[in-house]
Amino acid sequence: MHGETTGALRRDAIGLREVLFQSVTAMAPAAAVAASIPSGAAFAGGSLPLAVLIALVACLFTASCVAELARELPAAGSVATYAARGLHPSVGFLVGWAYVFVEMLVPPLLLLQLGFTAAGTLHEEWSSYPADLWWPWSMAGAAVIAVAGYLGVRASARFGTVLGVFEILVFLVFAALLIGKAGSANTLSVFGTSHTADGYAGFGGVFAGSVYTVLAFSGFEAAAPLAEETRDPRRTMHRAVLGAALGIGLFYVLTTYAMTVYFGPDRFAKFGASGEASWDGVARASFGLFWVLVFLAVVNSTIANANACANVSTRTAYALARVRVLPRLLATLHPSHRSPVAGIAVQTVVAVAAVLGLGFAYDPVTAFLLLATVIVTVVMGVYIVVNLACAGYFLRTRRAAFRPVRHLLFPVLGIAAFVPALLTAAGLPAFDFVTELTAPVSYAGPVVGVWMAAGVVVLLLLIRRHPERIAETARVHLEEYAPADRRQDGTVPG
């Protein structure tokens, strides 16, 4: 493999469809519907559809902020560039440092889920298959993702599009079947507060369910790091980020409604991610072999999500390595595919090491929960900073384009939505429905703390020795896309 450390990512390689599904698959819609969203049922009960709808509205505030910044600052650095321009380059570096770290951990997270889901299902169907033989499936998934990434953004994004379409179609068909079979049991009362779980009456239960549901929306910003490889990136990024958040949010509302009215709102508090009271259990009990499609859709979702987040981590690492705040090696591009091959190699090594190391040190499910806690905690924090960056950018740099609702109210509301989600993900008992984390999942906090402390040390060294590199985190490299009325640095003359 021969690479080069100069030049740019492939321009105009993909369009709106591929970029949209980059964000869609990063949200892992099938896995979220089957495994993540049901966690809110323990609090919201049969009012979970209302909790999902509230979470959708809340997430749209932050999605709007990301979309506004993606249109203004189309850069592979994405959230790092937004924070650098909206707040300060040092903040941008720390955001990038955190974002690369957690996005590199998403593929191993999903590969663990792929492994234990495939092994568990095969063991359930054929008892002779060992339930603990999960790792070959994880390794096969890692190989597929590495090959897709190596072949370049066009191949990787189109692969993600196909996977995304499949998982969405399976659950839409299933939702239609559930609504049809529910018949007269269909009711809009699930969008009220009358079906919450015992002990969580009224809006309190809905709020608790909504906080857990917000976590299913993470990933809507994943289109942004592909800006430099996208046609008409300013327009396309804006549409992709908002379109993914809104479209998949409505998909969550529809599928949750369908299962709630079919299963029964007043007993939905017992619904979960596994067993008879789950999407898989209902499919097995009432829809024959349709459970196979549900299983394939969830497996498909893990691969698609891992593929999308590998794109995110390698592009963000490339952007930071390009300005030499990360090792220059990570900016190495394949001469023909223009893919960040060194970053892909590092991503693959990290994925394999994390999957096998943590999976065998504990077990794949525990390793999954540990990684998920690290990832969600950091991502929620990044969203909060990006909301602040949106307000800062338009107040300080683009005052002529400032809109009070879009650029101040929405960021404030976005922060209000994600602070409870951050506290919940970290297991900090700010609310009575938050469960304190136990070992080894509780190690997530120290892991994040150590990584960010290391980032601060690196930042201080760079400020002392190479301050110009930190300033470069604010640079938008797609200068050829800048309108004629803007300077090269993105500001408006006059």
TrEMBL record:
A cellular component annotation (GO) from this entry: membrane
Transmembrane segments: 19-44, 50-70, 91-114, 134-153, 160-180, 200-220, 241-263, 283-303, 341-362, 368-395, 407-431, 443-463
Cellular localization per UniProt: Membrane
Membrane topology classification: Multi-pass membrane protein
Cross-referenced Pfam families: AA_permease (PF00324)
Residue ranges of every copy of the Amino acid permease/ SLC12A domain listed in the record: 19-428
Gene Ontology biological process terms from the UniProt entry: transmembrane transport
Keywords: Membrane, Transmembrane, Transmembrane helix
Entry-linked InterPro entries: AA-permease/SLC12A_dom (IPR004841), APC_superfamily (IPR050367)
Keyword Transmembrane helix: yes
PANTHER family: AMINO ACID PERMEASE (PTHR42770:SF16), AMINO ACID TRANSPORTER-RELATED (PTHR42770)
Name of the protein: Amino acid permease
